[in-house]
Amino acid sequence: MQCKNCGASLEPEMECCPECGMAVREEKTEASSGKGIKAAKIVLAVVAVAALLCIMVLVVFQDVLIPGHWFSTLPGTIPEDGYKGNVTCQGTYTDSVLALKWKKDTVVAKIGDMTLTNGQLQVFYDMAKSSFVQSNSNLSSLNLDLSQPLDRQICGLDESLTWQQYFLQKALEEWKLYAVLCQQAAQAGYKLSDEDRNSLDDLYNQFYKNYVATGKFSSVDAALQDRAGLGCDFGDYLTCSEWQMIASMYFNKRIGEYEATEEQIDAYYQEFQEQLEKNNIKKDDGNILVDVRHILIAVKDPADQEAQVEESDWQACQKKAQDVLDAWLAGEATEESFAKLAEEYSSDSGSNTNGGLYTGVQKGEMLDTFDAWCFDGSRKVGDYGLVKTVHGYHVMYFAGSEEYWHAVCKAEVPYWQVDQQLNAELEALDAQIYFEKMSLWEFAYSK
Fold this sequence. Notes:
Blueprint: H1 25-60, H2 97-103, E1 107-111, E2 114-117, H3 118-135, H4 163-187, H5 194-201, H6 203-212, H7 220-228, H8 234-257, H9 262-271, H10 273-278, E3 288-298, H11 311-330, H12 335-345, E4 357-361, H13 368-374, E5 384-389, E6 392-403, H14 404-429, E7 432-433
């Protein structure tokens, strides 16, 4: 560096020229200015990179660009956070869009070998809410307003919870049930049929055809998120649908294999007597149901309702009915052999594919003469005969009767017992629920 006044050589640390005494601060000022320019360029470069990153984020998350909160800026929870061991753990489970994306695959519950992620929880939460709305026509009477945030509304069914906490609790109960049944199904070697598997595989195509191909949404995930919430994607929905299908089918399998005992039927009546009697289901009230098989020999072609019927037609119809009855009597004359004849000769399309059988018939349900034969006080199992109605002659077989209360309770006992078994099985599996890790999307905040 040189002095501008006399040209003498200067050291960087000198403040004035040793030859002429001129101050050299201006030199340092210029040097400092150079550094300032460099710093400004660096800042501009950082800003440019940040702007580019923002643009990239917008492109990546374009399907969730709806009015809403990207970051958690919600007010204090109402009520405040409660006990970490139950659904009151968080006063609100609503989270930001970015947090929901980051936490989608976070495990929030575990039972045995089955885990539940935040994304899957969002699907179950939506199912619980939708099911409740469909089964309750007057939501305002329950203090439920779907246009307002559910984490700010006290539940009309349980004032210790918000509606968000209530639906979350129902969602977890449903998942627990699915988890138990799916694991039992796996242990029993139970698998979905090819038809069921194909119906699951076709779900994506259905969403695409109905929502993406029509231009309503840019992707299947976007369509699903509009329906269930931003915290999930189609993969979560597909997994939950498979669980639901397996659990429902295996539950029905258990119900179908359960045989109620007389002791259990009576116990069910005693347990729910008040509720049953409110619905006019009472013991010894004379209300009975009958099971009856019949073979209809039509007096005219069922497909030709305009055909005129002569007396000779009725005579021919009666003769044919008698011939069928005689053929049955000449054979084994059992209920099974009667059923085979019904499938061969009966014109009644409502029963000729199941041996002519009608079960649980109530008084007054059939045509007068048919009904009178079935509910004759002397009727007993194995009785047979001919009955004439406007349709023709019926070859009759009385298969049995049952008191109405008994039939209702017998049908309900398997559900009652299997539910109790499932509750015990669920407790034995020791569910682990991590409420503190849960996050949900709240539609009302996006409006």
